[in-house]
């Protein structure tokens, strides 16, 4: 998520103070953390428990920086900037400290190379371990995670042998969704991520929005539907688009392999959703390539059966139906139901069609159902 570019972005407006960051004077606004300032200046600070959408947590300690006068490195994501601070984000000691932490984190995971289809953030641990050369195995030993492979829900794989206790899943469920469907049980080496009363997800208040999957940095929580296409040889391609399930306009990326749609990932920079999706936007895409999906209009013939037709024929048949109903039963026999998945422009045309075309206010939309 960080950039090595030397470019800088302007500091937030307001009453600004200054500190020294890696030898340069930097302005900051009240309330900014050292990580936020460093990230704005494109300093390379690794993180695993950090998600910019969540409250800082400071559990992974990878974002530690040196502050002059402080005995030990401090977590930059939770440390507020103070005027006159002298902060160093990159020193040999910090890099060795980060490598050791990554070696310990990696020692508990069954595997580091998880498929990118697992989720949006699933490659974060792998990238950092490779960046720091932390595949040493020198801390190999017992593992604390216990997978919930018996959870047979169709959407989310709970492979907690990959869990590093960053709690991003728990926090996104609470802070972003307000569901509190998953939580933390036990302490120390026996810490586990769990649903209510250690039940299955479908027995909890989980809405299967998939946010826990998309924030997980290790693949401990993965997209089951997407992973079912992991064996396909084609490369993964992403196509940015807008979800059509309702009028909110959530931005998402469609994942494809060849001609097959294999998964959905939310756009973290989506203006309407900021990385969030509902269960339909996240997982309900099978209809797109379903073998029974209609590819041409159907009209009913004299034998009572449906037959393929051209669009002109189908529209003419619909118009004739409206005309007959209006002639026989009057304007109040016409009723329009607009789609909640349509954009505002389509809704406007629909109400014009009913109100102006037939002189009635009998129009509603499916969002009320």
Compact summary:
The protein is α+β, with helices and mostly antiparallel strands and 369 residues long.
Class computed from helices, strands and strand pairing: alpha+beta
Which term fits the overall shape? elongated
N-to-C CA distance = 41 Å
Strand content: 15-25%
Helix content: 10-25%
H/E series, N to C? EEHEEEHHEHEEHEHEEEHEEHEHE
| pLDDT < 50 stretches | 1-8
Task: Describe the secondary-structure layout.
Elements (H helix, E strand, L loop, with lengths): L16 E5 L2 E5 L5 H7 L23 E4 L6 E2 L10 E3 L3 H16 L16 H8 L24 E3 L9 H10 L4 E4 L6 E4 L15 H5 L5 E3 H4 L8 E7 L8 E7 L2 E7 L12 H5 L14 E3 L5 E3 L2 H19 L6 E3 L5 H15 L4 E3 L4
Task: Give structural attributes.
369 residues; Alpha-Beta Plaits; 18% strand
How would you portray this structure in words?
The protein contains nine helices and 16 strands. It has 369 residues and is an alpha+beta fold. It has three domains: 74 residues, Roll (Ubiquitin-like (UB roll)); 187 residues, Alpha-Beta Plaits, CATH 3.30.70; 60 residues, no CATH class.
